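User: quick one, fold this
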Amino acid sequence: MKFLRKALDQAHHHFAKGGKLEKFYAIYEMADTFMFTPPDVTRSASHVRDGMDLKRMMITVAVALTPCMFFAMYNTGYQANMAMMQLGLTSTTGWRGGVMDMLGVGFDPNSIISSMIHGALYFLPVFLVCNIAGGFWEVLFASIRGHEINEGFLVTGMLFPLILPPTIPLWQVAVGISFGVVIGKEVFGGTGKNFMNPALTARAFLFFAYPAQISGNNVWTAVDGFSGATPLGIMAESGIKGVTDAGFTWSQAFMGFIPGSMGETSALACLFGAAILIMTGVGSYRVMLSMLIGGLGIASLLYVIGSQTNPMFGIPPVWHLVVGGFAFGLVFMATDPVSSAMTSTGQWVYGFLIGAMAIVVRSLNPAFPEGVMLAILFGNIFAPVIDYFVVKAHIKRRKLRYVQ
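Assistant:
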């Protein structure tokens, strides 16, 4: 790595202030600090520094997302191959079919390689478009402001593709991530100053701007002409009986072998991510646990109350944890350290609020069978208010203690 270090040092003066490439310093700094630890040291009195900086934190989240990313590729291909088998298709049209035929791996759902490659042909283009379009805005704003490129986009660029259906048009991916990065983050000052999660902001934009491409029964399986509802969509129409009649089991849903947004289907992969985030101290266990308690509590209450007209009341609470985006939102979205509550007590309230709201929206509003996205954005908006009242109550307690 010495030659790389030497090359970067030799190029530094071109990008430094007054150099001919001064405007592109943000790109140079991004490449330099991505590969090497910044050489900055304190110049005065000693300071205690934590080894976890923003870059390490974001890389840790990216590592935690890796199981979901690989499972997204596998399950997308598996669902597509299963649908093709049901339709009696042995090949598919378009460039993906050409690549699959050229590789000669077939479309067998029992083949891990076939399913992985077929799914990757849907996931990777979405991933690349997301990172190219979002990265463009990130570099542009950093260059104009003369700031360093923030590593926050590294995570946003992984989160957003995972919460999209495989059939999403690529131009909508570019438009959505542009909205999320520019309107959801950069207009507020960039990473650390946004009050809503940029990836969820981008998805919410697509959900309301282009609902036909991100909801319904025709977008979850990457086969033209195939229509299949997700277990959550079936629940909204015919309850848990409809789900079991369709052949879905709880263990299937827990493992993730169900149609849905590419990276949200596997609660097991999310659990691996949760373990990494909690062990490294990057993700708040308070938010995860309280969201779990809030979701299970409201789901249990609705289950006990029951309803003759709304089949969502009869869904066993544990099913709510493994369908839709509940597990993914609990681990990776609600715990966003920028947009969540900062105080320890506030994180308990914040997580409980999101868990409860997700089940309320999911069960009581037939227009939105998936309520996790809206619940987390709702929690993002109220996080500063929650922290305000927690700090205010803390100050009040300290004042009373002082008077005594």
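User: anything notable?
Assistant: The mean pLDDT is 89.
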